Amino acid sequence: MPNLSITWLGHSSFHLRTPGGLHVLFDPWYTGNPRFPEAARPKQADLILVSHGHSDHITDAAAMAKSTGATVVGIWEVATWLGIKGVQAVEPMNKGGTVTTKGLRITMTDAAHSSSFDDNGFVYLGEPAGFIVGLENGQTIYFAGDTALFGDMKLIGELYKPDIAFLPIGDRFTMGPDTAAMAARWLGVRQVVPMHWGTFPLLTGTPDALKRHLAGSGIEVLELKPGETAE
């Protein structure tokens, strides 16, 4: 079975090819994303996972779902809103719940942040969330979405034992490198993929700082450039 393939599309947008060959997009924000590599624009998608309703995470979710026929997974309010926008296949869920779709087991976790979209006035789009995704080869990934550090990350580590964590490190609006390093330790992961950094000057956290805070932990930091793929 092939390895998991991870392509960073800037900010918190990722394109994963699972060991079973599925194409999964996380938080697709391409339009207006200054770090989005156009050459890496996904041409196909089976699943789109949306962590919350802010424009830098959801802007291209409906367009990508319509163009690819992908199923969108999100909290109830996000899924319902995208359905109103014309997305045909949605999997609404809420925190603590699990859905199995396209052969992947997806559990929604908490996140400490906010969630709304300016759609000719701000629209409430439920609470922010993270995802635990069980892959076909037995690997488990944790996509934290936008979040502060919170104590139940210890519980997420205990319950789901993720191998890889996608963690925001930019600071100001999410965790910074120091608290992301603490999260990685609590989660017990072997690898961290930093996200939500470098997009704007306000996001001051860096992968180098994360590496310094994780020194001696044995946890690898997978630093990607926009458009770069790791397997």
Can you put this structure into words, describing what you see?
This protein is an alpha/beta fold and 231 residues long. The chain has a single domain (5-230), classed as Ribonuclease Z/Hydroxyacylglutathione hydrolase-like (Metallo-beta-lactamase, Chain A, 4-Layer Sandwich). It is 20% helix and 28% strand. It contains 6 helices and 16 strands. It has helices spanning 55-58, 61-68, 76-84, 153-160, 177-187, 207-213, and strands spanning 5-8, 14-17, 23-26, 47-49, 71-75, 90-93, 98-101, 104-110, 116-118, 122-124, 129-134, 140-143, 164-168, 191-195, 220-221, 229-230. The strands form 3 sheets. The chain has a 7-stranded mixed β-sheet, with helices on one face. A 7-stranded mixed β-sheet has the order 7-8-11-12-13-14-15. A two-stranded antiparallel ribbon has the order 9-10. Helix 3 links the parallel strand 5 (71-75) and strand 6 (90-93). Helix 5 crosses helix 6 (207-213). It is globular and about 50 Å long. The two termini are 12 Å apart. The mean pLDDT is 97.
Draw up the topology in text:
Layout: E1 5-8, E2 14-17, E3 23-26, E4 47-49, H1 55-58, H2 61-68, E5 71-75, H3 76-84, E6 90-93, E7 98-101, E8 104-110, E9 116-118, E10 122-124, E11 129-134, E12 140-143, H4 153-160, E13 164-168, H5 177-187, E14 191-195, H6 207-213, E15 220-221, E16 229-230
Parallel strand pairs: 3-4, 4-5, 5-6, 12-13, 13-14, 14-15
Antiparallel strand pairs: 1-2, 1-16, 2-3, 7-8, 8-11, 9-10, 11-12
Provide tags for this entry.
6 helices; 20% helix; 231 residues; Metallo-beta-lactamase, Chain A; 28% strand; seven-stranded mixed beta sheet; 16 strands; globular; alpha/beta
